[in-house]
Amino acid sequence: MKRVVIDQTRCKGCGLCTQVCPRKILVLSNMVNANGYHPVQCTDDELCMGCANCATVCPVTAFEIYKPMPIVVAS
Q1: What is the pTM for the complete model shown?
Q2: Which of 22, 25, 2, 16 is nearest to 55 (CA)?
Q3: What residues form DSSP beta bridges with 42?
Q4: Domains in the chain: ranges and CATH
Q5: Which of 22, 29, 67, 69 has a 20 to 30 A CA-CA distance from 42?
């Protein structure tokens, strides 16, 4: 399940998120977005632990973080 979603049209390629990612799975892309920036991309969605450090430091709110919810079964 994908835990991090990056709006690459909003990203300005500042790289702050790449510095705070504990798994070092965020990198600046070689691609250029419509605004002329190199947006960030996640290299391995499976390694993302959903810590939300990237979303916290992002000045343009380009991140959405999803954490799996535990299933509670009523007995």
Answers
A1: 0.84
A2: 16
A3: 26
A4: 4-65 (3.30.70.20)
A5: 69
